[in-house]
Amino acid sequence: MPAVSFDHLVQRLSWEDLDRAYLRRLVEQARDEDLAGLGLTAARRPRETGDRSTGSLAPSPGDGRADLVAREAMTVCGLPLLSLIISVYGGRATAQLRVRDGANVSAGTVLATISGDPRTLLTAERIALNFLQHLSGIATQTRRYVDALGEGRTRLLDTRKTTPGYRMLEKYAVACGGGWNHRLGLFDRVMLKDNHLALLGSTDDLAAAVTRARRAAPELPVEVEVDRITQLPAVLDAGADVILLDNFTPARLRRALALIGGRALTEASGGITLRSLPKLAGLGLDFISTGALVHQSSWVDIGLDWHRP
What we know:
The protein is of the alpha/beta class. The protein is built from 11 helices and 12 strands. 36% of the residues are buried.
């Protein structure tokens, strides 16, 4: 039996797990890209900064109100960011959330109502929508994959194939869509992949590599990637906690699972699609991982509808 438990290998990030100070810096960077050309050299930055479009309008006589509306069916993610975004843009507005992150909604559903200084709302509109459409797109994509896998013991995991700087938000979006989070970074698991094994020269040195890994990080699980069934005896003898079966067909997965016989937890990865997931659902795998939850997701359509005075 594997030395680590099934439940200790994966997690679902919650909103409370995310560092507010870090999220604020992300929003500030997005704001400064929009208002001041952040990312450009000094020679290319604008002389006059700010929202020149809204600034050209006559002052509004009062507060404005607008609804964030789902234009299509989706799984929602990112709504708690609205208050933070408003704060970064000066705080002269408020957001009332109508649904919770993780909710599955139909087209036409009001997700939130924002009210306050119309200039603040207009200036922050695009940045707010960018965050929500991207994160809800990941959550929606994940929900499709979770539904395709169906009920059972096999858990669907994400990967480290995330947008630089946005990893924890994107993994949170996966959790909102019903998926599970694989390792959050290089710090929370020893994972010996194909390129690590290439450095060893052969799998004859695998047992020693696993032993060294346990000695260097005794508190962490050890996972080893294989792409051939002939590698399995050495990996099992080495005592890996998890075996990652990379690009195995369903038939080869059945053979591998029979050989492993419960001596390690199992994860399938590589070439995972909505069409292939149902074929893998009943094999007895512990985990299936795919980067497609993030890198093949598409933004969903969310609009801002103003209340007429």
